[in-house]
Amino acid sequence: METGASSAFAVHLPVRIARDSGNDPNSSLTGTSAVDVPTPTVKNGHTFSFSHDGESFLLDGEPFQIRSGEMHPARIPAEYWQHRILMAKAMGMNCIALYVMWNYHETSPGVFDFRTGNRNIEAFIRLCQQEGMWVLLRPGPYICGEWDLGGIPSYLLSYPDIQLRTDFANDPRYMSAVARYIRELSPRIEPLLVSHGGPILMIQIENEFGSYASNPAYLEEIRQIWFQEGVQGPFYTEDGIRQLEQNRTNVTGGAIALSNGDAEQIAAVRREFPAVPAMAGEVYPGWLTHWGDEGLNGTAVDISGTLDALMQLKRSFNLYVIHGGTSFGFYAGANVDADSGEYQPDITSYDYAAPISEQGVATLKYMKYRGVIARYLSTPLPDLPKPVPTISRKGGEALMPELCASIWDNLPAALPAAQTVDPQPFELYGQAFGFVLYRKKLQRNCYGVLDIKDVHDYATVFVGEQYVGGVSRAFMPEHRARPLNVTHRAPLTIPLVSSAPDSDVSLELLVEGMGRVNYGHAMIDRKGILEPLTLQDAGGWSDTLTGWEVFLLPMDTAFIANLRSVCANPRKAGLFFKATLPLDATGDTYLDMCNWTKGVVWVNGHNLGRYWNIGPQQRLYCPAPWLRPGDNEVIIFDQHQLEAKPVELARMLS
């Protein structure tokens, strides 16, 4: 597709950086010059700025230590926002850092939601202010964050030649979409800046761009869009120290935050960049976990020494994350291993071994770090808020779901044949998440080796009504893959499947798109079948398969709400199971899926996320606000399971 070919995405950038603007890096094509570090207009008694020597952050002209804990509203039910903010405050934080996930708010081009549920960013920021907390805003457009495509909307991948995270000259389609996003976000943010009486101290420009490229024009264009929308900072950037030094990815007049930073790195950056202050922008108290890892990562991390040094020297810092929460639905991201090239999807839980657990509990780490911080403060820390109640049911009280529907009896109309000569990825069909069914009629008695060159990310394969195996982009342990006949980076043998005389059979691939890569240069990560499929018979004859039927299965709220309770063939995998959970009183709980294979769970219409028996996560978090007294509906879609198994309720992740 040529640049600008689709009018659906043609939103033009309001400004561009002049390539011939002389010695003024802040000049734009509008003819106005931007002020690097503006003097805030005091509307409510506070100013936030940097000292002239770059040594300190200044609040109302006095040195100010930022003690920030990061949490993400998109990963926390809105009913728990206040509890988590108060938990951070009780640990000694005076600030909350938060990502804004662009693709969580613009799910289709030009359609934004900043109001419903936990998408109301303004409400979260005002709640921070209500509880006496400052805010560091991290709106991207790219955030990483173990979030699908690093927060960038997947609709941009409908352009076959799209370039992400680049300036207007290299790809105006991307930067036009960025401008549209910032234009929508900025009027919600501008009144909440500290200079206007709000709690927002600084706004981050992009995220860890030094780990991706060196392109000052791109970062400056983002900064100029904010300027054009009336948001004049202060701004800051976030990078690893080596990447910052190599690619010089700070912005003019902006502060510098360091990933995996500590007091020594702050000192090194101050020597290299003396004009602006630096902080430890991501201090890691835990770490992320992929499906198939041996255990939940980060549990052995202890940052007591790092915190002690930062507090002793009064250096600013942000704990990434103080509370991780949950990547509900289909929003968990993925990585690609730099050495092996293996695709590594992230688990649903974003517990991260953080001081505040996924369920909001103060861990042993929390109490230890709280003690370190308290030693350096002149006033006592507030008491911890009361814990959230939990519920559990085990043994004879476990849920016992029953078969309720089949995906095969809930297929929508197939796409027009003109769109499906060759199988295409989700994004070219306008689908962001969920599943797509690809169906091809085969001549009877056709069998052999199916070469699926590039499936993203997991496919169950059927010939007629018979399951014949699966294909996984992610590595699976042998004891899990072998019983299911699931291959990894290898063709799949299709056995001879008997059919009625003179009749054709259907080859069907039910493909699940898992998390899009959120870090590095493999981010152009489309979902579905990306290359033509070939079938080679026993005699060596090979045929490229064309002429598919394609059925879009987003598995969104509307799809689940409209499921028809029909199952013509209960022996064909791809089944829905239902259980009723009666409750006298609600509380947080975890659904233990250790007896199930691979799939998704909904409770009262809320998507709890994916489970997979390769682990290490076996339990899915269900927050109390999504439950109700009386009967609660639990729906499970499993890609392999034919028989229902019990589901126990537990009080914690593991």
TrEMBL record:
Residues 423-552 form the Beta-galactosidase 1-like first all-beta domain. The keyword Hydrolase applies. Keywords: Glycosidase, Hydrolase. Its EC number is 3.2.1.23. PROSITE patterns: GLYCOSYL_HYDROL_F35. InterPro entries: B-gal_1-like, BetaGal1-like_ABD1, BetaGal_gal-bd, Galactose-bd-like_sf, GH, Gly_Hdrlase_35_cat, Glyco_hydro_35_CS, Glycoside_Hdrlase_35. Residues 575-632 form the Beta-galactosidase galactose-binding domain. The keyword Hydrolase applies. It catalyses: Hydrolysis of terminal non-reducing beta-D-galactose residues in beta-D-galactosides. One of its GO terms (molecular function) is beta-galactosidase activity. It is an enzyme of class 3 (hydrolase). Residues 56-375 form the Glycoside hydrolase 35 catalytic domain. It holds the Pfam family BetaGal_gal-bd. This is Beta-galactosidase. It comes from Paraburkholderia haematera. The gene is bga.
